[in-house]
Amino acid sequence: xxxxxxxxxxxxxxxxxxxxxxxxxxxxxxxxxxxxxxxxxxxxxxxxxxxxxxxxxxxxxxxxxxxxxxxxxxxxxxxxxxxxxxxxxxxxxxxxxxxxxxxxxxxxxxxxxxxxxxxxxxxxxxxxxxxxxxxxxxxxxxxxxxxxxxxxxxxxxxxxxxxxxxxxxxxxxxxxxxxxxxxxxxxxxxxxxxxxxxxxxxxxxxxxxxxxxxxxxxxxxxxxxxxxxxxxxxxxxxxxxxxxxxxxxxxxxxxxxxxx
Length: 260
Prior knowledge:
The chain is α/β, with parallel strands linked by helices and 260 residues long. The chain has helices at 15-26, 39-53, 67-81, 104-132, 153-173, 191-204, 208-216, 228-238; strands spanning 6-9, 30-34, 57-60, 86-89, 135-140, 178-185, 250-253.
């Protein structure tokens, strides 16, 4: 069922988004990449995914804080592929500081990229999915959409909001062959997480090694980081016919973190 489907994956030039893009391309899906990075490296990535999987792969560098650029991203995907069947809302940023010290600009940016961008991609693509009677919207939330941690007020608030958006849109789309779900990863060793380590060490007054073993993996019973290919495989499954009755769900992939 995934062969020939067309997907937009935001924040897909590295980390979780790239893992999902690789898995979806391998499953025969055309992919529109999005994200920041060196132009040459992004073109090399785009070309590798396309030629290695015999699929179409595009790139749009939309700033996900800007609705007009998100509109251009969706328009390019529709122009290049004909239609958008799958949207993976993955773009995200983080900032780790006590709430009384939290910069208001950081708050606004995190809410814009981690939450509002998912609203914009959804509003722009859901109508076509409903008309065609098939679609998949996959929001990459977080275990922090289910539970909280200190010093991450904006991120936790945004990810809780993503779960609310997921449930609402799932109900609106339920009779139209469109499923809407949120994957809630635990800690994945992505560039975003790596950047958190020194900030968390400073906020908590502990070493970086202690952040990894006692803070990040301390609550993850497997004591292992989640792998991007695990999340990619799960996202592909949610696009399959076998997942047609899974909608409105917050699906943890967190090594047992939120089971505690």
